[in-house]
Design brief:
binds magnesium ion; Elongation factor Tu, mitochondrial; binds guanosine-5'-diphosphate; translation elongation factor activity; protein biosynthesis
Length: 393
Amino acid sequence: AKETHSREKMHMNIGTIGHVDHGKTTLTAAITKHLAEKAGAGKFYAYDQIDNAPEERARGITINASVVAYETENRHYGHVDCPGHADYIKNMITGTSKMDAAILVVAATDGTMLQTREHLLLAKQIGVNDLIVYMNKADVADEEMIELVEMEIREVLTNHGFNGDDTPVIIGSALCALEDKEPKLGNDSITKLVEEIDKLPMPKRNLDSPAVLPVETTHKIPGKGTVVTGCMSQGVFKKGDAVEIIGYGSTLKATIAGMEMFHKTLERCEAGDSAGLLVKGVKREELRRGMVAVAAGQIRPARSIIAQFYLLSKSEGGRDKPIPNDFSAMLFFKTWNCEARSVIEENDLVMPGEQGKMKFVIRVPMVMIVGDRFTLRTGSVTVGTGIVTEVIE
Ligand code: GDP
Ligand code: MG
């Protein structure tokens, strides 16, 4: 048989964000067309194929999102494009289609708009730090307008905590590229865009933060000790490390006596690994799913968090009214749930079908970490979903 050249390409998840009608879907189609024709890699997705996003259910929320795949010489990409503003909000908060970096599309004819800013805010909250701006519709805007809009974009980026000075801003027309017109504004701009996409830093696994392993199961191994299993969400554990296993109001001290992954002994275990830790110094009876094993002294349990929160609309099975102050419901994190109360300051209500900042206080201290996602339920009904943006004592 003939050997095929197969080099594993690095994979990255990106997507288009920006105000409605600024050209996100047209640009997505143009990128796939460009790469399919020029680089012979991947297939061309026509506008209608992308905009016809399949419905996906995430924790009781319907999200419409298209994920298209394309590749350059060096990398493979998954690219998300959502049909509507609400879909972007829900997708970003639930993390259904993850984005490591984003292409912000701004029409030169409008400049930044309300949804542009809302997407930037959410991108920041979910940990997207790298952006490329594609200033679209340059075919119907004059020079002066383009210059002004670029200045405005850079300022808005800076105001949202991005690097407004150094973020690449590519000026072009996605429609011209798609229709093979005006090559300078059309295809050339896509060539430049793809070059910038390929320069985006690859996402780093979070190895520098304190080690954290949310406990999923616990086992007793007679004569040896207790094993807790779970997927490490950040950091690195090594054999012999001092750990604390925290949750439901207790903090238990233990030592890692051994580690295993897929029945193989490990000397170290890092973010992304699903592992079993053999811990000495605690009894299995003291441990429960939902507790979190952390590097000793590095992380403390808390009762209050601030979250970026999406409240489901009535038609999504949610409430018809905003959540009032001191509203009681259950917060569901990945491995645990707990009764929580809302704290609304200055009448900052989040309306059904919209997102905003919300504070919750839970009944017992638990480990919650910025970036953790959760849902809020009353009975068996999901009323909203959030991402932790701040942990308060
Ligand atoms: P989205 O809502 O951000 O996905 O925007 P679409 O991609 O659906 O584009 C909205 C409208 O703008 C459509 O009618 C497009 O044909 C048009 N459009 C997109 N890109 C350009 C462009 O570069 N120039 C012009 N003149 N129109 C464009
Ligand atoms: Mg669209």
